[in-house]
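Structure, all two chains, one model.
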Amino acid sequence: MITARGLGKAYGKMPILAGMDLHIGEGEWWGIIGPNGSGKSTLMQLLSGVESPTEGNVTLLGRELGSYGRKALARIVAVLQQEGLEPTDFTVREVLEMGRFPFLNWLGREEKDAEPLIEAIIKKLDLNGLEERRLTELSGGQRQRVALGKIMVQEPSLLMLDEPTTYLDIRYQLQFMDMVAEWRNTSGITVISVLHDLNLAAQFCDKLLVLDQGKIAGIGTPEEVLTAAYIRRIFRVEPAIVTHPENGAPQVLLTANRASYAGGLPHIDPGCKMEAEEEGDRFIDQ
Amino acid sequence: MSKKLAGFGAAGLILLLLTLVVSLGIGSVHLPVREIGAMLLHRLPGIGDSIVPNWEASSEQILMKVRLPRILLGMLVGASLAIAGAAFQGVLRNPLADPFTLGVSSGAALGAASLIFYGMEYSFAGGYTLPLVAFLTGAGTLWVVLLLARDQGKLPIHGLILSGVVMQSFLGAVVSFLTVMSKDTVNQILYWTMGSLSMRGWSYTAILFPYFIAGFIYLWSRSRALNILSLGERQAAHMGVNVDRLKTSVLIVATLLAAAAVSVSGVIGFVGLVVPHMIRLITGSDYRVIVPLSALGGAIFMVWCDTAARSVLAPMEIPLGVVTAFIGAPFFAYLLYRNKKRRREALT
């Protein structure tokens, strides 16, 4: 599906990513994990073609990524961003219709009638009754479902998710991931997702790619990658790895590191405290 | 979308026609509506012969040589500024953007003020000298602003707005300097920077018409992409919009349109800012609706402002830019208030 060779990106002299080689096959679900600042988002931008690399190249379906026009690319690749959709005055139906933009000719028409597709997606994502509501009137979870719907309308063969569950509560996180999984099972799309939640990544992804300081630190199945030694090295935390009782996926448990609080809170000098109180009083006077 | 556009569009067209007929009658010589209708229909091929002229020749002179060209020019200027404003707000995704954000008005004003200052208004192209130079200096300003804002092949929005503001204040200072330094011609420069549609005649209408038509078609054709852009720049890029090309082309077309309007009428503020917002408050954020309705709204708004400018203190004319702000600001405040109230009612 998509292949990167010697891929790198630098801003000025600052390298963000370097020397990445990877091949993602059709129908696979990859998770990209790694600490903050390891280059996950940059990698997604390079693979989705919104940024161009400073070294190496990406080929999508055997063709250089840069040779695709914007619309042609959007017919193959759809991207869901962390922040989702901005709350605008457009209605849910209008936003879903926008998903067909890559398929419109210069007159704004499309050969195929997209209406049945949009109706089916409204039903599938349980957006019935919300079609005429404006985005500004929806909750964050509903808005993220609309964002997913809009991307389904785009009918891509490669789906890229950039931390899609960041602003959702656990119920919506799970619901969202289940919807993507169902979509993948029915249509066989390839999925690349950046995920902070290692436990969700372990349950949904076929393969995990670990990034550390702009380089690939490892590629493997969740069982191969999510080991205590590995997580300790990459994330610098002390994890316990258990097996999910129902599906056998490795799950990462974290324990608050009490050691750093040993000795109690820093001692406060009474003189300082007085000053702080005076400061507070002055604010009240104003 | 199409239903909404058809409904509001039909209402707008009727209002525009009504505006035309009523404003044609207002002025130092009052012309009755029926006479205006007869005179206009008489000019139309086909049905014109069936109408027997029973009006004074002077009335027809006033109508055809003075009022009609002025009102049509007002419509074109208003419509051009309004769609340019809608385009700027769409591309810069900033509600405070207007056709002059990128400094085009100051550029045009500098060209016009220099000509007036050196007494060269009619130097090489007769009556067309001033609009031509104003257009060129306005467009030149856009070029400099784009050059300043361009960063590694991209056009960041904050860079654009900052460059525009810098150019605007710099060129504005030069115009002020020229205004102060010229002893006899102070009023002329000042009046040009406050806008007017008086004594323009048919030729100016003819200059502006092709610009308006071309600009309108182009901007309307980009309205779907502008809708997608309102979801966010990166989002739009992922959905197949070539964001930088869209931004550059729409900004250039909108600026040229604004420069063309300014070059014939002088600087008329407020229309490009307020009219698209009024349309947005009434109809929502769909640019496929906003662009054509802004054209209608801008035309109607401008004609009423100009009618007030020429008739309220007649025979003295109030600068048009003053009237647009006088009428536009309170009306806009009312719409904002009404919208807030309606939203609150919808919640309870």
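Chain B touches chain A at residues 1, 221, 224-225, 227-228, 230-232, 234-235, 237-242, 284-286 (CB under 8 Å).
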